Structures are given as C-alpha cells and as structure tokens.
Amino acid sequence: MNGELEKIGFYTLSDNRARNISTSSPLWRCELLLTDRCNFKCPYCRGANEWTKGTLSFDDAKHVMDIWSDGGLKNVRFSGGEPTLVPYLSELVGYAKSKNIERIAVSSNGSADLVLYDELINAGVNDFSISLDACCASTGDTMAGGICGAWKRVIDAIRFISKRTYISVGVVLTDSNFDELPDIVRMASELGVTDVRIISAAQWNDQTKFKFLNLGSDILDKHPILKYRVNNFRCGRNVRGIKKDSSHRCWLALDDMVIAGEWHFPCVIAMREGCKPIGSIKGKTIGQIREERREWMESCDTHENEICKRNCLDVCQDFINTVEKFKRRNDV
C-alpha cells in the first residue's frame, strides 16, 4: 500500500492493519454522531434520516465509548450535525482520553467560538476536520446556507487550530465552487493546515472536470492526502465509485464502526446516503456487534449495493484490496 497512507492521521491505512484485520483485532477507526443539529445549511448536506435524528445523551455517549474501549479502540471521531453544539463535548473528549485512545478527532464546520476549540484541544482532541468550501466570503457564506459572516468564522478557526494541533480541511465540491478549488487549496495551505481532503458531493460527481485540476508539486508534497487524491484524478480515477476490479467485500466493516443513536452502520458515507443500519447496539457486547458486522460483510456484495457502488471512496477500496491480497496469500 502507498506508504504515505500510513501517516495520514485518523485515516491511517497500513499493511499491518490489513494483514491482521478480524473481529478480534483492535477497532481502528470509529465515529460517533452526537447530534443532528447544525447551525449551517450547506446545500449538499443530506441531513438526518429516520435512524440519525436527535441528540445523544452524555450517558449514552459514554456507554458507546465503553463498548468501543472493550474492542481496543485506537481512534475515535465525534461528529454530527455540528458536534460543538453539544454542551458535554469537552467532557466526552476527556472521557475518551481516559480510555487511552490514541487519536481523538472532531469534525466541525468551524463556527464555534475559538475558546471552545482551545478547550477541546486541552481536553485531548489531537485531530480536527473543518469544512472549507470556498476561498472568498461570498461563495463561503453561500455554501454555508447564506449565513453572513460564516466564512470569516471558519477561516479564523482554521488559522487558530492549525497553530495548535493536526487539522485537515474537507472541501466538498459542486458546480458552485469547483473552479475555486486551486485557490481554496492554496489558501488552506497558507493557513497552516496539515492536509486537504477534496471530495465531490454525492449529488455532483462529475469526473470529467477533475482531469483539468492543476495543483503544483509545491502544494502536493506538503499534504499526503491531497497528493494521493490528485494522483488518482490524474490517472482517471474518481473519489467515489467502485472500480470493476475492486473487492466485492467491505473488510473495513470489521474494524471500523459508525454509530448514531442506538444503531451501527457500515460506514459514515453509507449512513449519510440513507442506508439501513446493520443493527442495534442495545444490550449487546462489542463481540456481538462485531459478529453482526462480519455477517453483514460476508452477505453484502458491494458491487450490487447501490450506495456502495456509487459512493465507496478510493482510499477505502485501496485498503480493502490490500486485505484481499493478504487473504489470498494465506489461502495459498
């Protein structure tokens, strides 16, 4: 596997992980949706569905952390909606840190007060993901749902956090902002971000436009996730969509997990695109939950599943195919 992918923070995908993946290997990357509330109205956002509505109580959030900790959790992400709207977020981060979790990440729209971001860092957050969908206030405020001053708050948050800890910015692309992408990337780099994750909105996945993307090596060499994705574009490969020669199984379901409310889902993208949950976590041990995920993995052909087929990310397929490679070697 591309060696750079072992050094991309929360999304780390290593050969060692691929070689040893099972229902008893450590949980590598889990995401907990704390609320469906958000103070932005981004036009590409899918919003909540019947399984993801509401706000998790602090006790229920801690219970999920206890379950995952029993599975040897290494990395956790708190998201939403907008997780900084949840009043117990800093306390939950401290609870996660007490579980000796290596990487504690928060996905935010960048609208919170800088005092809160500082509080979260002091509590234990060492990975932020902030959305940056424009390089100017007019487009930025529009992408946030027409909220005046939204873009300025996001820029201030990115600049503030980048001086303190790991931060990546996510750029969701549509017709409205694609032409600004080179300027967005350069601005993000100048703000001091660790990396840049560009992804097309699920409703807009125009692969033909990406071949015209022009970013210099001075920028790409600084940001491994960005470089990985741009190199894929240059080879005619899109962010989303399963390649014909990719594995038909989602091995990531074994040691990744996404929970919203009482439900666990195959992955965060599948959840946001409205897939049904694999099952409930109520009254179950981590072993029982992971066994449900193994059964789902073995029964689901991702090439036949419409959500997987259209939306599975390039980096996930690379990892899954690496798992398949090791599995074939062991069968010989």
What would you say this structure looks like, in words?
This protein is α/β, with parallel strands linked by helices. The protein has one domain (3-331): TIM Barrel (Alpha-Beta Barrel). It has 14 helices and nine strands. Helix 3 (89-98) links the parallel strand 2 and strand 3 (103-108). The chain is globular. The relative contact order is 0.14. The model has no long low-confidence stretch (mean pLDDT 90).
Summed up:
The protein is 40% helix and 14% strand. The protein contains 14 helices and nine strands. Helix 3 (89-98) packs parallel to helix 4.
Give keywords.
9 strands, alpha/beta, TIM Barrel, nine-stranded mixed beta sheet, 332 residues, single chain
